[in-house]
Amino acid sequence: MAEKKGERVEEAQGVKPPNACFGCGEANPDGMHLPFTWNYETRRVHGVFQLGKRYQGGTGMIHGGIIAVILDEALGKVCRFDGVQAVTAELDVEYLRPIRVDQEIHVEAFQASREDRNLHHEGEIRDSAGKLLARGRARFVIIDADKYRRTAGIEIPGNDGKG
Question: 21-152 falls under which CATH superfamily?
Fold first, then answer.
């Protein structure tokens, strides 16, 4: 994939458990495997997808829940600009036009504001001609990554599990 100025595809750094996320995880055989790019100059996350019939709701159209997943993934990826881990606390999706299963879509997300541990992100899904198809807003809450991993039962290399 060609990179634009200020844009790069993120690669794993350090030792991390396999990513089993439904939306973007490479370790989830049933997942969507959505690839995103981060533009560090504009602080925006981008993705281009053509999903196919597997994610169909009404005949020939992408399921609304899948549209919400795509927006949640893109909005969540914006946290990387602040170097924090956060979880979705609220997600609001406006479905403006149906999205066909064979349609190429473009998603873009950015941070609208930050208040202490609360990150407010916004994003849009457009078609290849730029027509707005869906819009999302979310509030993410910054978490303690080590505490999250312990709660999830994920081993942390070099950590004795105490604390």
Answer: Hotdog Thioesterase (3.10.129.10)
